[in-house]
C-alpha cells in the first residue's frame, strides 16, 4: 500500500512538473465562430485555429492587473482594443485571414497566434 502511494505521488509530481514547464506555454483551440480568451499572465488559449473563410468573434476577458495587458493589438487586422478589468470585449476578425497572424499586448511581451485553416 505504501509503495502504491509513493509511486502515485511520484507520478503526480512528474505530471505536475511537465505541466508546469510545457503545459502552460501553448494551449491550442479550434474555433468555428466564437471563442473566449482569458487574459491572465498571458492569453489562454494562445493558439487559435480558425476557419479560413469565416468571421470569428473573439471575446477577451482580462483578469490580470498588469497594465500592459490592457492593450490588445492585432497587427495584421489593424485592430487595437482596450481591455478593462473583468469586462468581456469582443473582437470580430473577418476574412481574408492571413494563414498565420498574431495578437499581442501593448509592449509585445505576451503573444498569441492565429492559424487559419480550411
Ligand atoms: Cu506587455
The CATH superfamily name is Cupredoxins -  blue copper proteins
Question: What CATH first level would be assigned?
Answer: Mainly Beta
Cα(first) to Cα(last) distance is 52 Å
- Helical fraction equals 10-25%
What about the largest sheet? 4 strands, mixed
Strand proportion, as a percent range, falls in 35-45%
Quote the average pLDDT. 89
Helical/strand content category: alpha/beta
Number of strands: 10
Keywords: Membrane, Transmembrane, Transmembrane helix
InterPro entries: Cupredoxin, EfeO_Cupredoxin
Protein name: EfeO-type cupredoxin-like domain-containing protein
Pfam families: Cupredoxin_1
Essential attributes:
118 residues, alpha/beta, Immunoglobulin-like, four-stranded mixed beta sheet, globular, binds copper (II) ion, Cupredoxin, EfeO-type cupredoxin-like domain-containing protein, EfeO_Cupredoxin
Offer a concise description of the structure.
The protein has one helix at about 1-25, and strands at about 30, 35-40, 45, 45-50, 55-60, 70-75, 80, 90-95, 100-105, 110-115. By secondary structure, it is an alpha/beta fold.
Give an account of the 3D structure:
The longest helix has 22 residues. The model has no long low-confidence stretch (mean pLDDT 89). The chain has a single domain, classed as Cupredoxins -  blue copper proteins (Immunoglobulin-like), CATH 2.60.40. The termini are far apart. A hairpin with a 6-residue loop joins strand 9 and strand 10. It has 118 residues and is an alpha/beta fold. It has a 4-stranded mixed β-sheet, with no helix packed on it. The chain has a 4-stranded mixed β-sheet with strand order 3-2-5-8, with no helix packed on it. A two-stranded antiparallel ribbon has the order 6-7. It is globular and about 60 Å long. The protein is built from 1 helix and 10 strands, in the order αββββββββββ. The structure holds copper (II) ion. The site of copper (II) ion (CU) has 6 residues, from loops. InterPro entries: Cupredoxin (IPR008972), EfeO_Cupredoxin (IPR028096). This is EfeO-type cupredoxin-like domain-containing protein. Pfam families: Cupredoxin_1. Keywords: Membrane, Transmembrane, Transmembrane helix.
